[in-house]
């Protein structure tokens, strides 16, 4: 892989300065990820829970500091080191420049806070809530002469940059590996996500000291893409864990406010936390309390990190689903490469969307990739039932009546030898779903088998843990049809093999997209082509609005659409 | 005073059982107060601040426990003593039976909380906020056979009980002393008030750890009556006190939410605390956020204590006024006796009211008593300027440009010898204000002199610290006239001396109100007499409603009327 970086470097010297800068940051992100590989490998013997716990604990020892655009990294670190040993640190720019600094001990945070001022001039017009989001004050005019530290990229590369980058690779396998490296969350980005959860935990922990704000979904399932939302759970289980001692004699109980139901109490707690985030939480803006949704949530933007955050409560199945995906992602590197590629391909062709509706979701796509890999011969991934059978007594997990047990010790899992290339798997994926009998069969990763559809919905994918539910209930026939047609088209393009020929005579300036990059070009059938875009424009507005309304209805209570991303590759 | 209790005891044996019970509780309250005298005397060398600080610190070591109606005090204390030494405890009944338990160390609270359960059965429909308001669970049916502990009275006696009680006294001076004893806050009640502030402080302290919820007004000014509201200030000064270090080099600042003004931030903070109290605060009901008032406040009922609470912020002048009244109350016992008597007399005759409006307030009445005592020859109380002149350097206090300096060390104050009896002072008070030139003179306790009225308002009493303000701006001519007429009538009744003769031949059953008790009987001029009550009934409803609206308007932003008390003596 180091060799291919060399090629990229030579290649991008001929590009526009702006494109050069973007590509440089992409490559540095990929390099960072290459470094991560080692870190990830070292973590492979740890369970999902152990990794999350370690990251959470690191976040609790960390601070987020707003910095001037230029400053001496050395002076900055010397200043902070007065309060204790610094384990790790990095800089990034979002709405301004920021540093994440992880101390080796939590006491350093207390010492640092003791020496931190409340903004003096306007202090009476500011809410004096002392969080771990600080600002570095550089004395006077000294800042101008300072160097610019190495700010790490926290956004994904644009689709244009990706296409160029991939076209320089020598094989489809290299392309898919490179794509994963360019899109996946960096170690630093994951740290920042845990830090934002930890900062929010300080707000929630004010009333519920034993509570933990845990990230779930893409932040932890190993399939997260740079720029994706941070999904969080308010985990209150620790509160109950410490008490409930019963004797035969006298006992004491806390007097507590009662709610009409667990849901009402969840709404109440989220409502107060939402208000606190809104009024006290520095850098937290655009707070929306979406409490009437099936799963009540508080949504807000955390400006210093640039993250869109969704806080829910009592969502333990979602956390278990994250663990399951993480586990599948760890078993074979091809899983993540294929998932990242299929998701990128789907996003470019508007198969998935950043707003809720009848579109196929990333989770659905991931389950489809897992199912496809279970169907290989020999299978690349075990079934969920096999993961359950390997589980030890401590892995036992039942959530609201659903058996969510899976093995946590990856070393117990023996995989069969399958040496298929990524290129082969990609082609077979498109063929598999281009010809899948969606009209009668459902997808079931628990059994690893097609099953008869229990309902007449367009697409039926059994929820892995809540087995009576369909994870793709939202998908309508039109969207499924678009997906199938695109699979067929991509399979056909790969079968033709024309796009697999990389012309070596091309100069760096005029490299043509080939291989996987060619699959990202606008399609005639997908609605991303010029023709169909024009066709859509001619549709009467009323019909487009009706479709939008229909798609919003499907989500039930949650009618507030996510903000559309301006980044087409998001 | 012990002898007179004996008289009371003999006397009330002849009464209805219900009246007997009420009187018994009144007398026990008075007895408790007699005990308090010693406690108060011991505290006399302490400054106001030191006393408040001591009470606050005691409250932080205390818990409030809901109890069954019958239980063994010994077993209860044995159970709690496992967690540390108990300094003090008492029981009272309000909405149910409660215990206040003060440990000698704060660690005992932590230990106790460790061993306290969250209600188990419905735990998912309860907000698991762990406060210091607990419930004692007595095992099974054992409770029925247990004794009833000594529950202390926390409500004031009714006006009927007071009249009977006073009529048994042998002199007007004894009557006024007895009245103070019956109405004033008990040590236990003050402890309970500080505890409620401390419990609320736990809620506010979640976000502002250095903040303190301080009671002010009647809870601390030594003129508080059983059943009066708890006025609280959210004091955030401690937050700023710890920081604001400045060096020449790098420094760190907290990132904080900005508000448009200090007022906007106060509203925001009170709004969030109000929401937290409403949603999380056990026992807190009827939360009203009155944020648009001149002084934004959160009002709520704390059911376990039975207190109506008003939480404001940034109200340091109010705290200083409390200190001033406290100081005047400590200088000579006659001050408190006269204030309690005049306030009781005013309340019975509807000169004061529990709803906001054009009525004279308790604070106004107290300042009038202070001014009257400054006018005696020789003066019983020093002027505010004299108290300022005696102040030491550490007493210096300027709040928002107003010099609020007063001496804190009472031993520095030398009083002139004045041996007037309470009877004489009461009569002179009525004569003084029955003849006061309210039309042209204003009352000024800072100078201790009448001054020319700077405005044409009916009653002008200079605010002691904010000297450009009139504390009685709300009072209209009608209300002032009623006050003056009642003063004249009471002065006349006392001058006639008929009511001062206690007929010794009266039997216990038919004791006639005499002395001060006779002044509490309905008056012809005051509007409490039968005749005028009938007259009011004939007033058209529209006129009564107009008056009510007028009186509400006077309070400006604050249009939410206080709940009327059902206790006529409140």
From TrEMBL, chains A, B:
UniProt domain PAP-associated: residue ranges: 424-468
Gene Ontology cellular-component annotations: mitochondrion
Annotated organism of origin: Culter alburnus (Topmouth culter)
Keyword Transmembrane: no
Any Gene Ontology biological process: RNA 3'-end processing
Name of this protein: Poly(A) RNA polymerase, mitochondrial
Assigned keywords, A-Z: Magnesium, Metal-binding, Transferase
Every RL domain range: 47-116
Cofactor requirements of the protein: Mn(2+); Mg(2+)
Domain Poly(A) RNA polymerase mitochondrial-like central palm: 173-330
Record carries keyword Nuclease: no
Pfam family, one: PAP_assoc
GO MF annotation terms: metal ion binding; poly(A) RNA polymerase activity
Domain of life: Eukaryota
Coiled-coil regions, chain positions: none
